Amino acid sequence: MKLPCPPVLCLLWLLSACAPDAGSGSGEGPLEALRDLARWSGSPWHMRLQPDLGTAAFLEGRTHPVASAERAASSARAFLLHVHRLFGLMPNEELEQAYHRVDSLGMRHVRFVQARKGVPIWSSALTVHLDPQGAIVRVSGRSLPIGPLPPEALHPRIAGEAARQLALSWVRAERPAVSLTATVPVLWLWPRQDGTALAWRVEVEGQEGARPLRQEVFVDAHSGTLLSQTDLVARISLSVPASGSGTGVLGERRLLSITQRGPSFYLEDAQRGRQRTTLVRLGERLPGRTVTSRDPDTWPDPAAVDVHAHLASIWDYFAKVHGHFGWDGAGRGVVAVARSGDRQAIGLFDGRRIVLGDGSEHDLLPPGAALDVVAHEYTHAVVAALAGLRVDGESGAVGEGVADLFACLIEQHAEPLRGDWTVGERIKPGAPLRDLRDPLRSHQLRSLGWAPAAVAGPESVRAHAGIVGHAGYLLASRIGALRAAAIWYRAISTYLHQFAGFSDVVDATLAAAKDLHGRDESVLRAVREAWNAVGVGGMETIGKSAYP
């Protein structure tokens, strides 16, 4: 009599029966494990390795349908453990589930973080993707080959509060005039070349003049030394500001969605998550005060009028085109500071709100006058909610490039007669901040090189962003802006992770194209050609050599 086999048990049995014993000491590497997986599943598998670790960064193929909706997470974990050699994991690797969600296509996505005795490992993130039938079709992310740790390595000698005070003291030493606060410390395992350190992660926040300050500090939980300190505020470098008169900075009449309380009206959009526009005057703390007026058709600041109208257009774009409501996807409106009160050309997203400067007195209008500049910062918020991309290194360059791309896509959707492939051209005519058709126009990419390299420092991050933005422009030129936008949005919302770099984006856009367009070779070819044109390769460039 044949007994029914539960999906998870079937997966365990099939993998254990067909895959070589991970503990056999055979010395077989990821490529041999990939061949075993291909023989077991009866279908080819493609893989890209992390160049610095030699572990799989992106895996694509198809298992038999193995997971019911109720067992998707446990099946995903079982799959990772039974192909652990591909990812440099231990056979009994501790994997903490970060999330489990179902998208509009019916696909399931389960993300795990490596851990040791409940302490998560920083920079690890593995997401298993299952198709609507329950077959595992992809794994994306980053894993670290870290072995067992002795018990003493997981017990801090420095208390959390002591680490918090150390973090505050280090930031305060750099900015003595700033009033600072710090979050509750959280323990992480911090990978480094000479081993793994137990670390307290602390976020330090404050306000420097009219600008927000938000830094991430890692404190060694054994020695109390500084391991890392990173600025978490995502910025766009603006060489523009300005002044204006009339309804908007450029004299344009704009429709506004506002709120009335008693005799007063506010730049607060009750129809769009109560997103609001504020002004900060000299000496005031962020986010300042919501702009108010006694007359719904007369407002005290033209830049605030522009920003508030732009926020509505951007909300509507993400809602109508991508089904994404609010910057976080959960219907929450953003707070945007239309003027920071310091007469500077700044534009940034600090993790909580958008802050725009006043513009310069000579050659630049207020940044908020430009829809694409506001859209750039709003996209930073969306990317933070969907993928959590860091703002430094390759991840920072990816985030900047994506923000540039969607700034142009949003402007083209909202203002079809005016939209183009430049960013910020309205606040400094003739000298845009970005030109996605010709990135060399605004950044010295030629001196840095097109091929991805180590990206360090804000200027390098912004320069390398041109690689991503130009690839996005090339794809849109080949298949149209709407189809390109859908691929990019799915790549961000489904396949990217906090530490994603250039190659991860190649894999993500190819995977998204396959999800949306099946095996339509014309679309897949367009994605590959766009990336090949900027010299960035992903999984597909080496995948076919990874199995017989």
Task: Report on the architecture of this protein.
- There is one protein chain.
- This protein is α+β, with helices and mostly antiparallel strands and 548 residues long.
- It has three domains: 7-21 and 28-141; 151-232, Nuclear Transport Factor 2, Chain: A; 259-543, Elastase, domain 1 (Roll).
- Helix content is 34%, strand content 22%.
- The chain is built from 14 helices and 24 strands.
- It has helices at 7-18, 30-41, 72-82, 84-87, 160-174, 302-322, 371-386, 393-414, 445-448, 458-479, 481-495, 502-517, 521-533, 539-543, and strands spanning 46-49, 56-60, 94-102, 108-116, 119-120, 125-130, 136-142, 180-182, 186-192, 195-208, 211-220, 226-231, 234-237, 259-261, 264-266, 268-269, 275-279, 289-290, 292-293, 335-339, 346-349, 353-356, 422-423, 434-435.
- Strands 1, 2, 3, 4, 5, 6 and 7 form a seven-stranded antiparallel β-sheet that branches. Strands 13, 16, 17, 18, 20, 21 and 22 form a seven-stranded mixed β-sheet that branches. Strands 8, 9, 10, 11 and 12 form a five-stranded antiparallel β-sheet that branches.
- α6 (302-322) packs across α7.
- It is globular, with a radius of gyration of 25 Å.
- The relative contact order is 0.09.
